[in-house]
Amino acid sequence: MKLIGFGCSFTYGSELQSLDIDPNDHWANTQYRESNVWLGRLANKLGCTWDNLAEPANSNFAIAQQVADYFLNTRNPDEKIVVCVGWTNRTRMSWYSDRWVHNGFAGGEHGWTRSAREWVANCTSASHDMFTHNAKLMVNSICSANNVQLLQFNALGSHNPTTYPNYFLGGASMDSTLKRAMQDDPRLDLVASGGHPNAAGHEYFTIRLHDFAKERII
Fold first, then answer.
1. Rounded CA gap, 13 and 46, in Å?
2. Out of 102, 162, 176, 197, which could bridge 57 as a Cys pair, Cβ 3.0 to 4.6 Å?
3. Paired residues of 120 in beta bridges
4. Domain that holds residue 92
5. Residue 102's CATH number
6. Cβ distance 121 to 138 under 8 Å?
7. pLDDT at position 84, please?
8. What angle separates helix 60-73 from helix 125-145, to the nearest 10 degrees?
9. Share of the chain above pLDDT 70, in %
10. Are strands 2-7 and 81-87 parallel, antiparallel or unpaired?
11. Which residues contact 133 (CB under 8 A, 6 or more apart)?
12. One-character DSSP codes across 173-206
């Protein structure tokens, strides 16, 4: 079995850095990062492999498109997979030309299109909700149509209600769960300096996610 992960920096593993690797050597750190983010840790606990397809600053709109693209162009239908999605902040958006550009990284070398500027200026809370709910419906429908199990949760933001039985911690997020744990027990150190989960934070969350996966998904 293989876990196929989609999401933002919380699934990509931003700020997970091996101490014996030059911080500027990003690619040399890939194995450490992917093994220590929640997806790699969960796969290890379940005794399976994984592919991490998350992107920093990703949007829920893009995540849904990436899941669809995976099923259309990459998936091996003979391989047993579980799709794992860490949904992100609902206010994010992405544009695609030859690759995805996310509004968190837009500007500078990527540049802003007129439509992107207008979207950021005029998009309402109702629009954010619509994109996020539609993205979830799309991913759940794709997995259901292909008889593939889906494990999902909020990595950032609390965009609910949801009625999906495969949804972990529907009323909270990975981000809020770790911060609440540190408030309850000041001895815990679960978040890196830039706000992403550190290795201990990913392990703390994975233990709880593993119990849910074993009960509901696997």
1. 19
2. 102
3. none
4. 2-217
5. 3.40.50.1110
6. no
7. 98
8. 20
9. 89
10. parallel
11. 159
12. -HHHHHHHHHHH-TT---B-TTSSB-HHHHHHHH
Region of poorest pLDDT, from 78-87, 93-102, 190-199:
93-102
Say if CB 198 and CB 192 are below 8 A apart.
yes
Distances from the Cα of 43 to the Cα of 6, 62, 63, 82, 141, angstroms = 14, 24, 20, 10, 24
119: confidence class by pLDDT, cuts 50, 70, 90: low
For residues 25 and 44, the model is more confident at 44
State mean pLDDT over 147-154: 96
Total count of domains within the chain:
1
DSSP codes, 35-72: HHSHHHHHHHHHT-EEEE---TT--HHHHHHHHHHHHH
DSSP state of 213: I
Q: Are 3 and 54 in contact, with CB atoms under 8 Å apart?
A: no
Tokens in use for 184?
């309850």
Q: H or E element: which one contains 12?
A: helix 9-12
